[in-house]
């Protein structure tokens, strides 16, 4: 039986049974919830957009979209054979459930519909007593219009919600930074001599640009980031291509430490400094976290877009929201990721000791890789820091772990005007295990994965110019997730603590070195993706029943509406059939044994955009993997990664 409940507001409801279903609208455009009878394919979506002038860009499960239409258009929509319901949006659903009770004044941010008159919204807010109203427009970056404001009288919230040009009103996100041998562990699982198999193949981040958003800025006098020929960041700088607002004297220890972990490299000890970054040959584009707030107010999709314009394809964020909700930051990260298929956004899980009750945005966005911290070697198989999941809507976050303890990186020498090269543990707490340190390690690993495909190492394990490919962000995320190992110091696998485990790149990035483990990938763009009810299969031969078989499916899902309480839109299904005819289902695990259950009879996962099948002793012979489009609006691309013998 089809579930037509709409996941918006405090409780899901059926819009066809809503008392407002037959209500008339005023002649001016009003917000409505349009629900379809099933997922729309591309031709149907195109017809509906052309016939009614709707956008179909603010999705609310199940089968629904937020739109602004006039009374005549609403009536015509209700008469369309594809439409199940078209009801006015209850103004109360514009107020985020996480607006804190008993707090005044309230610092709020309102998301506006794209066709809203922002000046009229500002005037309406002012008439209600709102102050410090700041309008920002991120539509040029693929985002929305926003109004930040302060409201002294919370009794006016229902009147604010009655402004029909608003999508959602929520608290301004509180964004907090989440305060080696780590690179060796990321590559091989252990620390010590001869434990950097990825670096050993000359993959150090060459040709890669990493966008870094953090609190403050870098000190370009540090040897990890300086260029003797360029005093300021720019396109000719050997390490830092851009450092927005670089004249602001707000250099911070946290920014320095994070940047050093991901890409720090001293010219004097090129590629040999003992505390160099995991992708030490990569370049950086730096942005202050404060730019997300007024007066700059770029918001998440805008700040990521600016990094993209300067060449960044990996975007790392060692910070997160205090409120564990799918909010404006999450929507922006998901929208950017979907609109820019070759990009990867990585963000920190909340530290165990951080404020808040769970992980916040952007880490909990559907298309963002959320990273928790493991201990440093030799305890890298133990959890170091990170709030456990799941998200409030039941998705698995964090996604994986990287080393976040025992790190030494760039240290800030305040008021220095000369070149210096100080490194060491983080000054505030040398023993600190932090997701802030794990996240740039994961970003460095992502840069190495991207370089692997860009330089043509796949599929033969040797560098070939005729094999170069541009990997999607979904493929990079899938490779990182496929490389993970079960954390022996954490109970259950997968789990809400470790996600899918510790990154170990040499389990997935294979080279022509005689090992039996091999890599197969399918990287399918959205324009060639699955439609509703279609599927794609791949056959491969398992050649060794002693080599673990791991199958990973990842897709980049379109964003949900800001007010959706269950954000997953498109649902894919992963199955595998072994030579005996036994089926395995994605994410159907015996968590005690740490591998997939035989039979594939478990409930289908309709929430997560990551699915996995793990078989420790696969039967030798032909296996068939199938990816199916269970619920798909339009087309949905995906990345499939298979490793084993």
Note the main attributes of this structure.
16% helix; single chain; eight-stranded mixed β-sheet; 645 residues; alpha+beta
Description of the structure:
The protein has 645 residues and is α+β, with helices and mostly antiparallel strands. 16% of the residues lie in helices and 24% in strands. The protein contains 10 helices and 30 strands. Strands 10, 11, 12, 13, 15, 16, 17 and 18 form an 8-stranded mixed beta sheet that branches. Strands 2-3-1-4 form a 4-stranded antiparallel beta sheet, with helices on one face. Strand 26 and strand 27 form a beta hairpin. Helix 7 runs parallel beside helix 8. The radius of gyration is 25 Å and the shape is globular. 56% of the residues are buried. About 1% of the residues have low confidence.
List the uncertain runs. Answer: 21-25
Number-wise, the strands total 30
Secondary-structure-based class equals: alpha+beta
Bulk shape: globular
| C-alpha-based Rg, rounded | 25 Å
The overall average pLDDT, rounded, is 92
The helix content, as a percent range, equals: 10-25%
Q: Could you give the distance between the termini? A: 41 Å
- Main β-sheet description: 8 strands, mixed
Summed up:
The chain has 645 residues and is an alpha+beta fold.
């Amino acid at each position: 039986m089809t579930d037509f409940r709409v996941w918006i507001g405090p409780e899901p409801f059926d819009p066809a049974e809503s008392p407002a279903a037959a209500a008339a609208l005023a002649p001016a455009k009003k917000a409505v919830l349009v629900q379809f009878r099933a997922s729309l394919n591309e031709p149907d979506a195109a017809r509906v957009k052309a016939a009614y002038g709707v956008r179909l860009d603010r999705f609310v499960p199940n089968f629904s979209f937020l739109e602004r239409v006039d009374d005549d258009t609403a009536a015509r929509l209700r008469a369309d054979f594809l439409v199940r319901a078209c009801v006015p949006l209850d103004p109360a659903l514009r107020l985020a459930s996480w607006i804190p009770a008993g707090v005044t004044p309230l610092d709020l941010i309102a998301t506006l519909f794209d066709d809203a008159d922002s000046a009229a919204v500002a005037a309406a807010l002012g008439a209600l007593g709102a102050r410090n109203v700041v309008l920002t427009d991120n539509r040029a970056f693929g985002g929305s219009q926003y109004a930040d404001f302060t409201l002294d009288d919370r009794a006016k919230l229902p009147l604010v919600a009655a402004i029909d040009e608003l999508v959602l009103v929520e608290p301004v996100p509180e964004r907090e930074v989440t305060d080696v041998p780590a690179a060796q562990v990321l590559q091989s699982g252990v620390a010590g001599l001869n434990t950097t198999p990825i670096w050993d193949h000359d993959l150090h981040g060459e040709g890669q640009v990493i966008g870094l958003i953090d609190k403050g800025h870098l000190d370009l006098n540090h040897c990890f980031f300086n260029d003797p020929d360029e005093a300021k960041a720019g396109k000719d700088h050997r390490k830092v291509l851009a450092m927005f607002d670089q004249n602001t004297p707000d250099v911070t220890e946290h920014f320095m430490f994070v940047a050093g972990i991901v890409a720090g490299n001293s010219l004097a000890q090129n590629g040999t400094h003992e505390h160099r970054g995991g992708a030490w040959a990569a370049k950086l584009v730096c942005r202050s976290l404060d730019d997300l707030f007024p007066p700059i107010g770029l918001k998440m999709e805008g700040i990521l877009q600016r990094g993209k314009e300067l060449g960044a394809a990996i975007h790392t964020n060692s910070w997160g929201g205090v409120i564990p909700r799918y909010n404006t930051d999450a929507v922006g990260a998901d929208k950017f990721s979907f609109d820019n298929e070759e990009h990867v956004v990585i963000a920190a899980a909340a530290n165990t000791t951080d404020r808040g009750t769970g992980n916040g945005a952007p880490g909990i966005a559907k298309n963002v890789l959320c990273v928790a911290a493991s201990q440093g070697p030799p305890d890298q198989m133990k959890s170091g820091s990170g709030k456990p999941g799941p998200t409030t809507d039941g998705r698995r976050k964090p996604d994986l772990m990287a080393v976040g303890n025992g790190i030494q990186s760039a240290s800030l020498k305040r008021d220095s005007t000369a070149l210096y090269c100080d490194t060491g543990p983080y000054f505030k707490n040398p023993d600190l295990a932090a997701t802030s340190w794990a996240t740039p390690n994961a970003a460095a690993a992502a840069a190495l994965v991207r370089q692997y495909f860009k330089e043509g190492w796949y599929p033969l394990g040797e560098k070939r110019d005729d094999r170069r490919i541009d990997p999607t962000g979904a493929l990079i995320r899938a490779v990182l997730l496929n490389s993970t190992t079960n954390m022996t110091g954490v109970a259950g696998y997968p789990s809400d603590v470790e996600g899918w485990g510790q990154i170990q790149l040499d389990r997935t990035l294979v080279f022509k070195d005689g090992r039996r483990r091999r890599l197969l990938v399918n990287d399918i763009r959205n324009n060639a993706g699955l439609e509703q009810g279609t599927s794609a299969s791949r056959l491969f031969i398992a050649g060794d029943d002693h080599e673990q078989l791991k199958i990973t499916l990842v897709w980049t899902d379109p964003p949900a509406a800001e007010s959706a309480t269950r954000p997953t839109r498109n649902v894919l299904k992963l199955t595998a059939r072994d030579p005996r005819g036994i089926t395995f289902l994605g994410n159907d695990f015996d968590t005690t044994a740490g591998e997939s259950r035989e039979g594939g009879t478990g409930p289908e996962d309709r929430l997560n955009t990551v699915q996995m099948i793990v078989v420790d002793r696969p039967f030798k012979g032909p296996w068939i993997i199938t990816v199916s489009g269970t619920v798909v609006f339009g087309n949905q691309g995906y990345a499939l990664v298979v490793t084993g013998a």
